[in-house]
Amino acid sequence: MSSSRTGIEWTDKTWNPTTGCTKVSPGCRYCYAEALTKRFSKSFPQGFEMTLHPERLEQPLHWRTPSRIFVNSMSDLFHEDVPFSYLQEIFRIMQETPWHVYQILTKRDQRLVELMPKLNWADNIWMGVSVESQAYTHRIDALRQIPSVVRFLSCEPLLSSLQLNLEGIDWVIVGGESGFNHRPINPEWVRDILQQTQEQKVAFFFKQWGGNHPKAGGNLLDGFTWEQMPPAWDIHKLNFGQKKNSKQHKSRLEQNSLVSAK
Length: 262
Ligand code: SF4
Prior knowledge:
Layout: E1 13-15, E2 18-19, H1 32-39, E3 51-52, H2 59-62, E4 68-71, H3 84-96, E5 101-106, H4 109-115, E6 125-130, H5 138-143, E7 150-155, E8 171-175, H6 187-199, E9 203-208, E10 224-225, H7 231-240, H8 246-256, E11 260-261
Parallel strand pairs: 1-4, 4-5, 5-6, 6-7, 7-8, 8-9
Antiparallel strand pairs: 2-3, 10-11
Residues 21, 23-24, 27-28, 31, 33-34, 75-76, 107 line the site of iron/sulfur cluster.
């Protein structure tokens, strides 16, 4: 299963030069990537074991439409079993394709900080950390050390209220858990994070309430959708355009102006 299509609202494509992972914190308990490897077991003969896919390394070179690309939706790029030389190759491809924006998300903040000085942080790399509960806000301190053009948080699955210091952070994504075992999200937690992003002037994206499947609860928060993107995305689009996605491009620009009432 190497298709780049995705239903993830804050990105256009996925690129998985590795698949598989191991669990590190409570947000991993019902990992959707692991669930997909079980559901589509023929496409994942190695199951959820960390597997390198060097044949996929050059895929983005062939994607000509400027896109937001989520790197490793099926894994964690900073997993300890991803060799440094392989990481360097991934960073080289990202640098060689400046028409794309790459969105990397990790829960391995220690390895991220350790390797940060040895990696080339091109202007099209956005770096993010997952923060599912207050106990993991230390990942944000690690993220602040990364010289990426955009630093973002994915608070999904949101498992507690969060008090966030958003200094140096450009974008916060929030979402509830999906799947039959989903842990419920409290709407007050979401309203509170929204308020903190507004006070600290950070873009806010509410992905979903969650439920038995990702779209079960929709994404309306008190009658509004919140799908803001960091300003760097508009700048990137101005620089590189999005010819094939012009309609989508227009609607996203409208959304970025703040909110769209339903
Ligand atoms: S770090 Fe991400 S991919 Fe890895 S087990 Fe946890 S949720 Fe799944």
